[in-house]
Amino acid sequence: MGLDAHIHGRRDVSGPVITPCKLHQRWADSRLIVIENEGHGGPESVAALVDAVEEIAAGLP
């Protein structure tokens, strides 16, 4: 995994999922995590964020 994870709730009405999709396509080694049942945050998004930070931290020297 790269050092970048994009976490986005599909139901986020203020920011359509196409935006992080386009960013992910252009950002080499990034990972896009789409939370299907949430909007702008929520427990699944927080859990995905914690997992991503722990994964990134584990890969640091």
Quantity of strands, as a count: 2
| Mean pLDDT rating | 90
N-C termini distance: 15 Å
Give the C-alpha Rg: 12 Å
How many H/I helices?
2
As a percent range, the share of helical residues equals: 40-55%
Strand content: 15-25%
Helices and strands: which structural class? alpha+beta
Sheet with most strands = 2 strands, parallel
Taken in chain order, the helices and strands follow as EHEH
Instruction: Using the alpha-carbon principal axes, give the shape.
Output: flat
State the strand order across the main sheet.
1-2
Spell out the key features of this protein.
flat, two-stranded parallel ribbon, alpha+beta, 61 residues
Summarize this entry quickly.
This protein is 41% helix and 16% strand.
Describe the protein's architecture and organization.
With 61 residues, the protein is α+β, with helices and mostly antiparallel strands. Helices cover 41% and strands 16% of the residues. It has two helices and two strands, in the order E-H-E-H. The protein has a two-stranded parallel ribbon with strand order 1-2. Helix 1 links the parallel strand 1 and strand 2. The radius of gyration is 12 Å and the shape is flat.
